[in-house]
TrEMBL record:
Belongs to the glycosyltransferase 32 family. One of its GO terms (biological process) is protein N-linked glycosylation. This is Mannosyltransferase. One of its GO terms (molecular function) is alpha-1,6-mannosyltransferase activity. It comes from the Eukaryota. One of its GO terms (cellular component) is mannan polymerase complex. It comes from Pichia angusta (Yeast).
Amino acid sequence: MSKASPYRGINSTSSTSPKFKKLSIFVGLLLGLILFKFSTSWSINTEDKIVSEYLNNFYKLNPKFRGANPYDAAVTAERLAKFFPYDNSARRIEKSIWQMWKVPSTDPDFPHKELVNKWKNENPTYKYNLLTDDEILEILRIRFKDTVPEVLEAFEMLPNKIIRSDFARYLLIFLNGGVYADIDTDLQKPVDTWFDSDRNVGFVVAVEEDINVENWEHYMTRRIQFEQWTFKAKAKHPILRKLIAKIVETTFQAKKNDKLQAYYKDFKGVDRCASVDIMVWTGPVVWTDTIYAHLNSIPSPTIVDIDHQRDIAGELYGPENGEGDVISWRFFAGLRAPVMIDDVVIYPRASFREDKENNCGKYCYVHHHFGGSWKNNGKGEIKPGMEGYEGEDPNEVEELRKNDVSKRDVIPGESKDAAPVKKLAKRCAYPYTPY
């Protein structure tokens, strides 16, 4: 018989034990509160607060889960910091390279062998690691089962391969430190030649896209968002800690709200309002939001801007800065060279894309082939003009743009005329809330 999750219920115990008496009191209080809900006015915020307090009280009864509340990212982040403290001493990022795929490299179906060999052979002083899905799960069970088990449970609850892949890469680098790279990335220069390699740096990432047009929201989820196909970090870095905690929170909230289903624009048969967007759940949205939140949490940050000039032609388009944001997307718009903000290095867009057509120069380190194996229900990305393309009708998209509405804002079954009046974001509540 499988062991019951500590988050879904309470295992029975002897009626004579002190724990059972305490538990009975909590259950009685909870029942009383439920009755109170139906006899008085009640708010969602009040209910969430009561549930949160009840969960905290329950975990106090079990030493293994004491203090846990997977519905609150702040609590999970504190627990991760306790069991996996960050070493803030001056040092380089761990010299390890991490890649992963469904099957080992010896399998006949393993793709991109020549690219994987470049990562391995051109970095001889680095420990190379290629893990399968099963090996990753075993590592996570060993490291989290008796420390922060809500992380492991959230990982095992994830309903989609790509979400697991996103979460796995964050967890692997959080636990071990080093470089993560998708297997469809083509290394152009050895890691030790990168700008950050001989500096006391804790986290390294690059701009994913910088589309300076008025209707930028039709192309990207954030005006300047950061890529996840290649990044570096020291083990237990605070950015990854906060990111993991937020994904745990979103996953448990999705389960609680019966939305434990992944959405992407070309996934067939997925109810947009009964699911969580992959981009939000584990993708560029939560990744980017967490990085910005961390940068803005640094008191009086030290900023090293290698090239103050920015490649911006004409008017700069994008949203207003958030309240209290010192470092926003505007700082990275048109970025031409790396910038350091305390121990975080942000590379320009070309660094991990290798924009050969525009001769990106000395800061080009990785070329990404954008295999998109997770798109189109696992069949890979089929672009307009390719056989089997069933994506957006360009004429329909243009019509929506005229009304300032993205394809993402249309709920299946509703008329297009209703879309400009009611945006999807106002009708479909997500379990995700940014920092």
